[in-house]
Amino acid sequence: SQQQGPPPAPSSGDVPVPTASGSQQQPAAVGKQDMKQGKKQAGGKQKQPQQQKQSKQKEAAASAGAGAANKKVTRLCLEVSKEADFPEWYSQTITKSELIDYYDVSGCYILRPWSYTIWQRIVRFFDESILASGVQNCYFPLFVSQAALEREKDHIADFSPEVAWVTRSGKSELAEPIAIRPTSETVMYPAYARWIQSWRDLPMRLNQWNNVVRWEFKQPQPFLRTREFLWQEGHSAFLERDEAEAEVYEILDYYRRVYEDLLAIPVVVGRKSEAEKFAGGVYTTTCEAYVPSNGRAIQGATSHYLGQNFAKMFDISVLHPKTNENVHVHQNSWGLTTRTIGVLVMVHGDDKGLVLPPRVSPYQIVIVPCGITARTGAEDAAKLTAECRRVEAVLAQTTGPKSWDLHANEQQPLRVYCDVKDQVTPGWKFNHWEMRGVPLRLEIGPRDMAQGQVTLVRRDTGAKVEVKVTDDATMVTAVQQMLVAIQDGLFGAAKTVRDNHVKQVTSMDEFCNQLDQKNLLLAPFCGDEVCEGEIKKTSARNADVVEGAPSMGAKTLCIPETRPQLTGQEKCINPNCSRKPLFYCMFGRSY
After folding, report:
1. Torsion, Cα of 294, 297, 298, 302 (10° steps)
2. DSSP states along 197-220
3. Is the dihedral of CA 540, 286, 586, 519 positive or negative?
């Protein structure tokens, strides 16, 4: 039940003050403002006795208040609200909840155990899904030769400004620079050409879990835009196009389930426009999530049909068994990154910190003993601690709700932690675990033991329920039911907000007005790349562009699988376009 150890607790005595960057400082000294006020009064007119008395009372109260405030300030909580300052809220949330720490190389971040454990939950679900469907895992080198990287000019054009190069070994210059992979098509496909010698070698479906480096010059944002990130990249080769396209949508559905079933985040699935598709591919499918705090969409994961483009470039071909003609294979690639964690934070987090869905939370339940005071005897305190430990053991031997059984081995014990630290108060523990987003808190105090009950507190709503425990089975059932309610409630709430911010429009004025109200837009579109550029430029008219912020103009997010049908009366949303629209497309401001 304790796969990950408890976080370090503050030492006894004065509690150090964590700063937003993770460093610590002692509580600030009191009195600068009071000193200024005192100097001002000293240089003023002589006060009357009554005025002096009132002034002294105010000064005493102010001094006491300031002293008390400084004594209590720990900066353990978030210091801004999500609504008032979303970027600062995000920065404080990911550091104070111990998801990341900063590093001395710009754009690179340390994934602390709390975030890495969330990533492992995502990895486990997706890895089991693809392995069950016939994909095999492998690993290719991090380094790419210059010749291999530049072999496919169109593909690498999008990545070339971001490619990091190794040019020296110690003090010696390399004979030829070596790139650090931004993606692995040019790394893997020469090997595919050697390994695929016959149609009997097909399909070849490989996946690797690795890291890539893209030397972003835009303002880095942890999890969302970083110079190094973790991901999986799948690369497949098939004899026939229909086989390849079937896999594109199979993988896309796995991505949808990662977001909706695990992370409780609704996504829109669809196909990217020609301007937004993967370079070198025939088409790209995507999952798009919505961030309500700033009204922006964010690309969640993509699955690409590459056609025969790369096969022709790297000469991956076989004799077709029916025609006996030499044919190039059909290929796909698909990827999911640690961006998922950033989306999770932005969609579900609140002014207390993270809010984690039970299915991915490192701990699903935290047990906190309450009601131990200075008057509590050692024997009674020991009994309370023992009962908390007993409940922990019972829950740790309980499997998760059956409705979460997506795979044969999905049924795992509940992840529970009993916080029995005695150098901090229950209130400190409440704040600590709320900041980290643990879905359910189980409180047990002397009164609970006497009355045969436990108190359950939901992280998502704050609702507190006292549950009568006639036996362990009753408690287990109550816990399982509440975890399901939290998972479903988070998804339902996020979907309601998202759906309320999707608007169908047919004119550019309506398009821009709705966009400025933080909405995603369904609009008729001709599909032309030049036309899309004009729409993006026009829609940026009322935006306050902040350097390094996400794109202010609206771009195409996807052509949704589920979308309004054209009636024949619509015109392309771009007023300067005379072409007939081909479909309704989803537009929005995006990361």
Report:
1. 180
2. -SGGG--EEEEEEEEEE----SPP
3. negative
Residue 280 belongs to what H/E stretch? Answer: none
Cite the DSSP H helix spans in 179-308: 185-195, 241-257
Query: Could you please report the per-residue DSSP string of 68-89?
Result: HHHHH----S-SS-TTT-HHHH
DSSP letter (8 states) at residue 160: G
Q: Check residue 400 and report its DSSP letter.
A: P
Q: How far apart are CA 308 and CA 256, in angstroms?
A: 26
Residue with tokens 């306050």, as numbered in its chain = 544
What is the Cα 408 distance to its own chain's centre?
26
Looking at residue 7, the DSSP 8-state letter turns out to be P
DSSP character for 225? B
CB of 411 closer than 8 Å to CB of 405? yes
Q: In whole angstroms, give the CA distance from residue 489 to residue 521.
A: 25
Distance CA 554, CA 409 (A): 43
Instruction: Say if residues 269 and 285 touch (Cβ distance below 8 Å).
Output: yes
Cα atoms found within 13 Å of the Cα of residue 425, Cβ hemisphere only: 7
Within 316-390, strands assigned E span 317-319, 326-328, 330-337, 365-369
- For tokens 């309601």, the residue is 496
The model's pLDDT over 143-202, given as tens digits with 9 standing for 90+, comes to 999 888 877 666 566 667 889 999 999 999 999 999 999 989 989 999 999 999 999 999
Q: Which residues pair with 297 in a beta bridge?
A: 290, 590
CB of 111 closer than 8 Å to CB of 119: yes
Beta carbons of 367 and 419 less than 8 angstroms apart: yes
What CA–CA distance (Å, rounded) separates 218 from 591?
A: 11
Cα–Cα distance for residue pair 90/380, rounded to 1 Å? 42
State the pairing for strand pair 365-369/172-180: unpaired
Read off the pLDDT of residues 370-423 as tens digits, 9 standing for 90 and up.
988 777 788 888 999 999 999 999 999 988 776 665 554 456 899 999 999 988
Rg of the Cα atoms in the chain:
29
Mean pLDDT to the nearest integer, 454-479:
93
Shortest CA distance to 212 belongs to which of 235, 188, 228, 192? Answer: 228
446 Cα distance to chain centroid: 39
For tokens 């990154």, the residue is 337
In whole angstroms, give the CA distance from residue 129 to residue 254.
7
Query: What is the DSSP secondary structure assignment for residue 401, as one 8-state letter?
Result: P
Question: Of the candidates 63, 67, 75, which has an alpha carbon nearest to the alpha carbon of residue 15?
Answer: 75
- Residues with Cβ < 8 Å from 94, sequence gap 6 or more? 100, 115, 222, 223, 342, 345
Using the 8-state DSSP alphabet, how is residue 260 labeled? I
| Those residues with Cβ within 8 angstroms of residue 415's Cβ, 6 or more apart along the chain or in another chain | 1, 3, 361, 362, 363, 364, 365
Cα separation, 221 vs 94, in Å, equals 11
Render 87-128 in DSSP notation, one character per residue: HHHHHHHHHHTTSEEE-SSTT-EEE-HHHHHHHHHHHHHHHH
Count the neighbouring beta carbons within 10 Å of the beta carbon of residue 492: 12
For residue 97, give both structure tokens. Answer: 């909840």
- Taking phi over 0 as left and psi of -120 to 50 as alpha, with beta for the rest, 531 belongs to alpha
Cα–Cα nearest to 122, from 406, 480, 354: 406
